[in-house]
């Protein structure tokens, strides 16, 4: 069990409901979860199970309908929009499926952008960006426009960008979703290496079971609830998800 | 950072924004050209109408605007009125004028009998107000040694009834009054062009109406000492200048020594009766008000001057140059100004709508980028600024381009020397007057417009929820 004081992000009975054309959709249903410092967590589940919604709530991009999201012990449900923006910039790093590089900016400009938003020193940011780009193996393309890079290269840049503000938590939404298998493995290796070498706590969402196995801990979601939570890399997730209804735990934490 | 991203956004959509900037710039070019030409024309019209009215004038309460052509009755206590205006309204300057209407027929082939309005002026005081001395284009202005008085009253005739205008009136012109020394007169250059025999040095006889409402005429000899040009040929053709004391003598504004002779069937002949002119007597008091700090509204300033003078003399007739202009040209000038502003407003409104809809469309397609920025910690106001700055840049560039385009056109027109043909072959030079207000409006109008147009989509973009923004939209166009 992970000690409570080590928890970076704690989700306590969070639910998220959407109203789509008059129909209420329960994207997250009374879900509780804790991620500890240094963990490399994969979230897996079928389409529509709430993976991305969970990641958005963890990343403070969306507020849960009910429940509490705490980051480093701070209850984020009570802070203003302005503070949430500050929190996102300082504490969290994001990697998106489609990289989301600003096409007209160079690789270097893309990487330093979150730092500039946080009004950090541009020279220090550039120095730091060089180190990060070197770490993800794309420094030689620092002066190229993001749009001229391959998918794998763009995702490396996106990873470097996500770390520019030294976040306590890196959130990646399908980071390999738009890549071929070779590039996917390379990206996962980079994320893993960063986790091991820098101790970056990471949570990534994937619909691909093989990619999910890169995680040191895997959480399976179904119908907005945690269907399984394991550190066993050989676990049969499909079976876990299928048998979830029989073992429904009422939203209690399975692990962590 | 918002500025850099704004510039990047503009570069990304440079074609559509270039078209919008060009349309606004051309609209502002048109505005500046029309406004600068209007300023020039107003200046020309001002120069001309102000020769008659100065900033404002005071006449007898029975006078109307038509009477400003020289048929005003005598203004009672003109000297006291002039002094009181100067005392009660600090900075105001006045001068007394004597006016008359004149008729002449030179008898030369092709030159019909013509009429004119005579403004009798104090050469020094009036020049300070009307600036007539600076408009002399040939000959000279009045000088001290001019024979402004003949020392006796001219030949008069009183008309006994309607249609009873004696034939000899039409005989004036080449038929000089014997042994009569001519009064010096300054004639409009247009009149000289229309009547080639009216040249500097020419002496001819002129019949003047010497009372506004009664039918009393005087025939005198005049000698052209100078030609002037005001800028508006039609008025130049009509309005001539004499020394005020000459007209005072002609109109008997003073002490007359002697008696009248009545010639049956013709009228009353005053004969050689010397008079002492009274310089406090006159028909009009012209007024120059202090220059306003800002000439934002020349018409407003004219009304203000009128109101101040009316405050001092509520029972008198007070008119300003704008009243006279409206009398001459109707509200044509005002209508042109309103139409100019109206057309500019419509075009700019359309440009504003174009900016708004282009930005709306861009934001719709750029939501993922906006979502990413929000994920990186960008606050709503950072997003707002990115789009607002685009509006400022578009407006500023369009304004500057508009100013540059119009200055190029103005310089070209000035270099080429375009002019408009007026009556009797006179030419009105096309010119432009660019004042700081025109420049300021040409710059600030497009900036304000595009900021307002950009503010709506900018606000919409800033209010996007990060999740919604990340879910939809493309990253680039």
Number of separate helices of chain A: 8
**Strand proportion of chain B:** 15-25%
The number of strands of chain A is 10
Q: What is the 3D shape of chain B? A: elongated
- Secondary structural class of chain A: alpha/beta
Helix content of chain A: 25-40%
What's the assembly state of these chains? heterodimer
What sequence of helices (H) and strands (E) makes up the elements of chain A? EEEHEEHEHHHEHEHEEH
The N- to C-terminal Cα distance of chain A equals: 6 Å
Tell me the strand order in the biggest sheet of chain A: 6-7-8-3-9-10
Widest sheet: strand ordering of chain B? 2-3-9-6-8-7
Uncertain runs of chain A: 246-256
> If you average the pLDDT of chain A, what whole number results?
84
Largest interface: A-B, 30 and 24 residues
Name the descriptors:
heterodimer, A: 256 residues, 6-stranded mixed sheet, disordered C terminus, B: 477 residues, alpha+beta, 6-stranded mixed β-barrel, two-stranded antiparallel sheet, elongated
Description:
The complex is a heterodimer of chains A (256) and B (477). Chain A is 33% helix and 26% strand. Chain A has eight helices and ten strands. In chain A, the strands form two sheets. Chain A has a six-stranded mixed beta sheet. Chain A has a four-stranded antiparallel beta sheet with strand order 2-1-4-5, covered by helices on one side. Residues 167-171 of chain B have low confidence and may be disordered. Chain B starts with a helix and ends in a 6-residue tail after the last helix. Chain B contains 14 helices and 17 strands. In chain B, the strands form four sheets. Chain B has a six-stranded mixed beta barrel. A two-stranded antiparallel sheet of chain B has the order 10-13. In chain B, strands 11-12 form a two-stranded antiparallel ribbon. In chain B, helix 10 packs parallel to helix 13. With 477 residues, chain B is an alpha+beta fold. Classes of the chains: A alpha/beta (256), B alpha+beta (477). At the A-B interface, helix 2 and helix 3 of A face helix 1, helix 11 and helix 14 of B.
